[in-house]
Design goal:
Helix content is 69%, strand content 3%. The protein is mainly α. A hairpin with a 2-residue loop joins strand 1 and strand 2.
């Protein structure tokens, strides 16, 4: 039993040490020759006009989060749809409850006006 935990310990050490070593080596061995062209701010290869720090409306982030929530919903519902014939009644009711809760959340967001692009 100790060997199983030893394996997990060794794997955890590798998981933390390898990325740290890669970052440190990149920092030590990487070139450091800044010039005005490399440090200039650009967007899609086009020189910016005006201020480069622009605040976006928080609504765009909310719409992105809502998209992520429903994207994750699809990830959870896809296996249920594939195994629908083999599911028992409890699993079907759990899936229906899951969809109803997400639909309720969608209607609440719609009612609050979070999906409006004004």
């Amino acid at each position: 039993m100790l060997t199983q935990y030893g394996f997990i310990l060794i794997l955890s050490i590798f998981a933390f040490v390898l990325p740290a070593v890669a970052v440190v080596l990149g920092w030590l061995l990487g070139p450091r020759r800044p010039d005005p062209i490399k440090t200039a701010t650009y967007e899609s290869g086009v020189e910016t006009i005006g201020d480069t720090w622009v605040q976006f409306r928080a609504q765009y982030y909310l719409i992105g989060l809502i998209f992520l929530i429903f994207d994750v919903e699809i990830i959870f519902l896809f296996p249920i749809a594939l195994a629908y014939a083999q599911l028992n009644l409890f699993a079907v009711l759990a899936a229906i409850t899951f969809v109803l809760i997400l639909t309720l959340g969608l209607f609440l967001e719609w009612r609050k006006g979070a999906l409006e692009w004004n």
